[in-house]
C-alpha cells in the first residue's frame, strides 16, 4: 500500500474508493461487508474520504454512465469503467479540480498491468467530460437498475418511482430517537423536532461527538424506523418479544418505555451490537441468540415486534450500494421467511396480544401482500388500523393493510426511509 505524499494527495483514498466500487459492482458485495478490511490500512482522513467518495458516486452512478456513454464506443473492462465513473463524479458532482482528478485516475490505471493500456482512454474521456460539465445539472435523477425499477414500477407507477429516485439521490439526514423527551437535548443538538417525535440533526460530521451521545440520551434511528415501536405502544411491565432485534433500535424504544423486552436475533455478532447499544443507553433487555423459527416459550408474550429480514429496499438513501450489489435473486427466499416468521410470532403471542409486523422495504410483496396472505391463513386475525394513527402519521399513508412510508414523503424536510408497518390482533 502506498502512502500519501504531496505529489499524490488523494491517491490513496481514490485507490480505495475504486477497490470498493469494484467490490460492489463486480463482486456484488455490500459496502458494509467490505469497508472494514479494505480501509483498515488508511489514515482516518483518507478512510473517511474513500467512503464518502464511493458512497456519493454510487448515489449518482446512472448519471456518471450517462455522461460517459457518448464517449465510449464500447464499454471498457469493469475496473476501467469504475475509474471513469469515479472521475466523472468527482469532476461534475463534487466539483473537484479536474487536473488532479484526471491525473489520479490515469495513475491508478498504470498501477495494474491489465489496465495500464487504458490510461490514454481514461485521460481522453475524462478531459472531454470536463468540457461538458454543464450537462451534469441537466441530467434527470439517477434511475435505479432495471431489476429493481421493474417491480417498483408495477407496485407504484412511474410518477412515484421517479419521485423515489429523486429522493434517493438526495441522501439521508441524521435522525435520532430520544430516550426520554428532553428539551435540553433537543436544544443542545440544535435539532428539528419531526412531527412523529424523532429529531433531525443538521450538519453532522461525527455522530459520537454530538451532545448527549456519551450520556446515552439518544440513538441514531431514521424517523420511519422509529414508527413500528411507537405503533406497538409498549406499556410498563408488559412482556414483549423483539423477534429480529439487531442492532437494537426498536429494542431500545421498547425498553425505554418500561416494558420487559426479550431481544432475539439469529446473529451472534449483530447481537453483540445490541448489547453494546443497550449498555451505552443504560437500558435493560434479555438477549437471546437463536433462530426465531426455533424459539419456544411457555410464557406467551403480551406483544411482539417482528422487524423481519427483508430486501432493505427502503434504505437505499443510506445504502446506495444495495441496487448494485444485489440482483433480486435472494428475494423469494426472504418473502417465504417473512411468512414463516409471522406464523411463528402468532404462536408465541397471548390470545389478546398484539403483533407489529414491519419491513424496511419498498416492495409490496414484503408488506401489503404479506398481510393479505396472513389474513387468508389465519381467519381469526385482523389489522388494527386505528393503532396506526399515531401523531405525525399522515392518514393518507395508511391503506387497508397498514402504514406505508416512502423516501419521497416529507420532501422539504429531507425525506424518510421506506417502511411498511402494520398491527395484527386476533378478532
Ligand atoms: C431488519 S433487521 C432488524 C433491525 C432491528 N429490529 C432494529 O430496529 O435495529 C433484521 C434482523 O433479522 C435477523 N434475522 C434474520 N433471520 C433471522 C432468524 N431466522 N431468526 C432471528 N433473527 C433473524 C438479522 O440478523 C437482522 O439482525
Automatic annotation (TrEMBL):
<dbReference type="GO" id="GO:0003723">
    <property type="term" value="F:RNA binding"/>
</dbReference>
<feature type="binding site">
    <location>
        <position position="291"/>
    </location>
    <ligand>
        <name>S-adenosyl-L-methionine</name>
    </ligand>
</feature>
<feature type="binding site">
    <location>
        <position position="265"/>
    </location>
    <ligand>
        <name>S-adenosyl-L-methionine</name>
    </ligand>
</feature>
<protein>
    <submittedName>
        <fullName>16S rRNA (Cytosine967-C5)-methyltransferase</fullName>
    </submittedName>
</protein>
<keyword id="KW-0808">Transferase</keyword>
<feature type="binding site">
    <location>
        <begin position="244"/>
        <end position="250"/>
    </location>
    <ligand>
        <name>S-adenosyl-L-methionine</name>
    </ligand>
</feature>
<dbReference type="InterPro" id="IPR049560">
    <property type="entry name" value="MeTrfase_RsmB-F_NOP2_cat"/>
</dbReference>
<dbReference type="InterPro" id="IPR018314">
    <property type="entry name" value="RsmB/NOL1/NOP2-like_CS"/>
</dbReference>
<dbReference type="Pfam" id="PF01029">
    <property type="entry name" value="NusB"/>
</dbReference>
<keyword id="KW-0489">Methyltransferase</keyword>
<dbReference type="InterPro" id="IPR023267">
    <property type="entry name" value="RCMT"/>
</dbReference>
<dbReference type="InterPro" id="IPR006027">
    <property type="entry name" value="NusB_RsmB_TIM44"/>
</dbReference>
<dbReference type="GO" id="GO:0001510">
    <property type="term" value="P:RNA methylation"/>
</dbReference>
<dbReference type="GO" id="GO:0008173">
    <property type="term" value="F:RNA methyltransferase activity"/>
</dbReference>
<keyword id="KW-0949">S-adenosyl-L-methionine</keyword>
<dbReference type="Pfam" id="PF01189">
    <property type="entry name" value="Methyltr_RsmB-F"/>
</dbReference>
<feature type="domain" description="SAM-dependent MTase RsmB/NOP-type">
    <location>
        <begin position="152"/>
        <end position="427"/>
    </location>
</feature>
<dbReference type="InterPro" id="IPR029063">
    <property type="entry name" value="SAM-dependent_MTases_sf"/>
</dbReference>
<dbReference type="InterPro" id="IPR001678">
    <property type="entry name" value="MeTrfase_RsmB-F_NOP2_dom"/>
</dbReference>
<comment type="similarity">
    <text>Belongs to the class I-like SAM-binding methyltransferase superfamily. RsmB/NOP family.</text>
</comment>
<dbReference type="GO" id="GO:0006355">
    <property type="term" value="P:regulation of DNA-templated transcription"/>
</dbReference>
<dbReference type="InterPro" id="IPR035926">
    <property type="entry name" value="NusB-like_sf"/>
</dbReference>
<feature type="binding site">
    <location>
        <position position="307"/>
    </location>
    <ligand>
        <name>S-adenosyl-L-methionine</name>
    </ligand>
</feature>
<keyword id="KW-0694">RNA-binding</keyword>
<feature type="active site" description="Nucleophile">
    <location>
        <position position="360"/>
    </location>
</feature>
Amino acid at each position: 500500500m502506498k502512502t500519501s505524499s504531496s505529489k499524490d494527495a488523494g491517491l490513496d483514498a481514490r485507490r480505495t474508493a475504486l477497490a470498493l466500487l469494484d467490490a460492489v459492482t463486480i463482486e456484488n458485495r455490500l459496502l458494509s461487508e467490505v469497508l472494514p478490511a479494505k480501509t483498515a490500512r488508511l489514515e482516518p482522513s483518507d478512510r473517511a474520504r474513500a467512503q464518502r467518495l464511493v458512497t456519493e458516486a454510487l448515489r449518482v452512478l446512472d448519471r456518471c454512465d450517462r455522461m460517459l456513454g457518448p464517449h465510449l464506443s464500447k464499454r471498457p473492462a469493469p475496473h476501467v469503467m469504475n475509474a471513469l465513473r469515479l472521475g466523472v463524479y468527482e469532476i461534475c458532482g463534487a466539483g473537484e479540480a479536474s487536473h488532479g482528478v484526471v491525473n489520479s485516475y490515469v495513475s491508478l490505471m498504470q498501477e495494474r498491468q491489465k489496465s495500464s493500456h487504458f490510461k490514454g482512454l481514461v485521460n481522453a474521456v475524462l478531459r472531454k467530460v470536463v468540457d461538458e460539465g454543464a450537462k451534469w445539472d441537466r441530467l434527470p435523477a439517477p434511475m435505479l437498475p432495471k431489476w429493481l425499477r421493474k417491480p417498483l414500477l408495477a407496485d407504484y407507477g412511474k410518477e412515484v418511482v421517479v419521485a423515489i429516485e429523486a429522493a434517493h439521490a438526495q441522501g439521508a439526514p441524521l435522525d435520532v430517537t430520544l430516550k426520554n423527551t428532553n428539551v435540553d437535548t433537543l436544544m443542545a443538538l440544535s435539532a428539528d423536532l419531526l412531527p412523529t417525535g424523532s429529531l433531525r440533526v443538521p450538519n453532522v460530521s461525527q455522530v459520537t461527538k454530538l451532545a448527549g451521545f456519551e450520556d446515552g440520551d439518544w440513538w441514531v434511528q431514521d424517523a420511519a424506523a422509529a414508527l413500528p415501536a411507537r405503533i406497538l405502544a409498549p406499556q410498563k411491565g408488559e412482556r414483549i418479544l423483539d423477534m429480529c432485534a439487531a442492532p437494537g433500535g426498536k429494542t431500545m424504544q421498547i425498553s425505554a418505555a418500561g416494558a420487559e423486552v426479550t431481544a432475539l436475533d439469529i446473529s451472534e455478532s449483530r447481537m453483540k451490537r445490541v448489547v453494546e447499544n443497550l449498555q451505552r443507553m443504560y437500558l435493560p433487555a434479555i438477549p437471546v441468540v437463536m433462530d426465531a423459527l426455533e424459539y419456544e416459550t411457555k410464557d406467551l408474550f403480551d406483544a411482539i415486534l417482528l422487524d423481519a429480514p427483508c430486501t432493505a429496499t427502503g434504505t437505499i438513501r443510506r445504502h446506495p450500494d444495495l441496487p448494485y450489489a444485489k440482483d433480486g435473486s435472494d428475494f423469494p427466499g426472504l418473502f417465504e421467511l417473512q411468512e414463516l416468521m409471522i406464523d411463528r410470532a402468532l404462536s408465541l403471542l397471548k390470545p389478546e396480544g398484539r403483533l407489529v409486523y414491519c419491513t424496511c422495504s419498498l416492495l409490496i410483496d414484503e408488506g401489503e401482500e404479506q398481510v393479505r396472505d396472513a389474513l387468508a391463513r389465519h381467519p381469526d386475525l385482523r389489522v388494527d388500523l386505528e393503532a396506526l394513527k399515531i401523531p405525525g402519521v399522515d392518514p393518507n399513508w395508511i391503506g387497508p393493510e397498514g402504514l406505508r412510508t416512502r423516501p419521497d414523503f416529507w420532501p422539504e424536510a429531507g425525506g424518510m426511509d421506506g417502511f411498511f408497518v402494520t398491527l395484527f390482533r386476533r378478532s
